[in-house]
Amino acid sequence: MTRSLRMALAAVIPLCLSLLVAADASADDKRPNFLFIIVDDQSPLDLQVYRADSVLETPNINRLAAEGIALDGAHQMGAWSGAVCTPSRHMVMSGRTVWHIPDRGRTSRSPHEGNADLVPPDLAEYTMAAVFNRAGYDTMRTCKRGNSYDAANRKFTVVRDATKRGGTDETGSAWHAEQVLDYLGEREASNDDDPFLIYFGFSHPHDTRDGKPELLARYGAVNHTDRNSLPPANVKQPPLPINWLPEHPFHHGHPKLRDEVAVKGVWDRRDEQTIRNELGREFACSENIDIQIGRVLDRLETMGELENTYIFYTSDHGMAIGRHGLQGKQNLYEHTFKVPFIVKGPGIAAGTRAEGNIYLLDVLPTLCDLASIPAPQTVEGTSFRPVLEGQQETIRDTLYGVYCGGTKPGMRCVKQGDWKLIKYDVLDGKVQETQLFNLAENPHEFLPDHNRDNPMETNLADDPRFAEKRRELEALLLAEMKRLDDPFRLWDQPQD
After folding, report:
1. Cβ–Cβ < 8 Å for 259, 79
2. Are residues 101 and 34 in the same domain?
3. What three-state secondary structure class fits 445?
4. Do 108 and 140 share a domain, yes or no?
5. Are residues 427 and 369 in the same domain?
6. CA–CA distances in Å: residue 77 to residues 146, 243, 286, 334, 433
7. CA-to-CA distance for 314 and 317, rounded, in angstroms?
C-alpha cells in the first residue's frame, strides 16, 4: 500500500469524527470561538512585548499579552521562495513541514510538488477552514491577495480578501477590520450562534509602508519616493537596531532580490537616515494594525463573545530592516526566523510567558486541540496547548530553518538549547560560510563587524573552544535535513 493511499484512508477517520463532534456539540453554545490574527512581515523585536524599550505603541497587543501568554520561541520554518510568506502561510493552513507543502498552483518552486507521497494532491481538503467547516464552525477570512494558499483560502465560507497597503482607512488596515466588523454584525443580526473561526489577516506592515499621515508624524517618518536623495532625519524616528550594519559582511546569496534592492523608500541603502525613516514607516503601519485589532476586540466584548474566544496574534515571518545590514525576510537570523506569538483565551493564565519552541505549522493542530476537533492525519505539526496552559515549557528541543529561494542549496540553521548554527552555501560555491552563536550570551547574533567587547558576542564557528559544539550542531542539522526530506546538501555534507 502506498504512503499516499494510507494517508487517504487514515484521513477518513478524523473526517467522520469531526462530523460526530459537530453533531454532538450542535446544542452546545459553549464551544470556543477563534480569532486568528496574522500580520505581514513583522519582527517580534519591534513589539514592546518582546523588547521593552521599543518606541512602537501597541496597547491592544500589549493587552493581549497581559491577559494571555507570550511565546518567546515561535518560529517560521523557512522557505523555498523569495516570497517567504507563501510557504509560511501554506504551513499555517495545512500543519505540514516546509518540504511537504505545495506551491500556489501557478508555479512549482516547492521541490517535492508532484510527489504524492510527500505532498498530498488533495491537501486543501484537510486545511484550516475545511476542517472547521466539517466540525460545524462558521469560517470567515480577510487578508491580502496573493502569496498564499489559494485552494485552502477558498474553503472559508466567507472570503473578503484584498491587498491594502495605503495610508487611508479605505486603502489600509482599517479595511480588513471593517470586513471582520461587518461579518460580526451580520452574525448578530441573524442571531447566528454557531461557533466561529475568523482568519483576520493584514496586508501591512509589509512594504510599501504608506502609513496614515498622523501616525507617520508620530514616528517622524515620511513616505520617501526619491531614490536620488535621502529621507529627512527626524529625532522622533525609531533608533537604529542594536545589530544594525551598513552592509552584510558577505552576499546573502539571492542576486537582485527584490526585498534587498528594490523596496520603495530603501532600495539598496542601509544608512542611518534611510533605515530610521523606514522603521518609522513600519511602526506607523504597525500601530494602525493595533488600533484595528482594538476595534474588533471591543466589538467582541460588546457582543459578549470575548471571554469565549481564543485570540492568536502572530506574523508570517520576521523582518530585518537594517539588522545585520539586511532589509528583507530572506535570512535566518533571529529577527527573521522568529515571529511574535501571543494567545489569549479560556484556560490561559494572564501575563504568562513560555519559550514554546513552536513553528507556525503547529497552529492547525493546536486550534483543533482547543476546539476538541480531531486533527487530520495529514498534519505533521504538534499541538502546543500544553504550553498555553502552563503544563510544558516547550514542545520540541530542536528547531530547523531553511531559506533557498535564491541560489541553491541556500541557507540552513539549527537551534538547540542556547546554541544556533547557520550555514550558507550560495552563488555556486562562491559563498560558503558557517556561523555559530551562543544565544544566551549573544541574543542579537553580533558578528565580528559589530566590534563587541564581550568575546562571546561574535561568530564562534572558528573558535577552537567550541569546535566540538560546532561538530555536534552540524551533525544535528544534517539529521534534521534528512528527517524533513530536505532535497539539498551543503558543500561539507555527504552528498547522499
Report:
1. no
2. yes
3. coil
4. yes
5. no
6. 20, 23, 23, 12, 20
7. 9
Q: How far is CA 104 from the centre of its chain?
A: 18
- 437 domain residue, yes or no: yes
Q: Cis before residue 208, ω within 30 degrees of 0?
A: yes
Residue-number span of the structural domain to which 439 is assigned: 407-483
The reply to whether 489 falls in a domain is no
Q: Is residue 440 one of the residues assigned to a domain?
A: yes
For the sheet with 431-438, list strands across it: 78-79, 398-403, 410-416, 419-426, 431-438
pTM > 0.85: yes
Cell output for 398: 530542536
CA dihedral 85, 392, 477, 472 (to 10 degrees): 150
- Considering the domain architecture, whether residues 332 and 467 belong to the same structural domain is answered as no
Q: Looking at the DSSP assignment, which residues form a beta bridge with residue 55?
A: none
Q: Can you give the length of the chain in residues?
A: 496
Q: Is residue 495 part of a domain?
A: no
CA 53/CA 56 separation, integer angstroms: 9
Give the dihedral of Cα atoms 459, 422, 38, 345; nearest 10 deg.
-80
List per-residue pLDDT tens for the chain, 496 residues long: 454 444 445 554 444 444 444 444 444 458 999 999 999 999 999 999 999 999 999 999 999 999 999 999 999 999 999 999 999 999 999 999 999 999 987 667 999 999 999 999 999 999 999 999 999 999 999 999 988 999 999 999 999 999 999 999 999 999 999 999 999 999 999 999 999 999 999 999 999 999 999 999 999 999 999 999 999 999 999 999 999 999 999 999 999 999 999 999 999 999 999 999 999 999 999 999 999 999 999 999 999 999 999 999 999 999 999 999 999 999 999 999 999 999 999 999 999 999 999 999 999 999 999 999 999 999 999 999 999 999 999 999 999 999 999 999 999 999 999 999 999 999 999 999 999 999 999 999 999 999 999 999 999 999 999 999 999 999 999 999 999 999 999 999 999 8
**What is each CA distance from 6 to 9, 11, 97, 361, in whole angstroms?**
5, 9, 19, 22
Bridge-partner residues for 200, per DSSP?
37, 142
Same domain for 344 and 447, yes or no, is no
366 and 470 both lie in a single domain? no
In the DSSP assignment, the letter for residue 240 is P
Number of domains in the chain: 2
Nine cell digits for residue 212: 496614515
Residue indicated by cell numbers 505581514: 40
Radius of gyration of the chain (CA): 22
Are residue 326 and residue 459 in the same domain, yes or no? no
Angle of the 272-302 helix axis to the 173-189 helix axis, nearest 10: 10
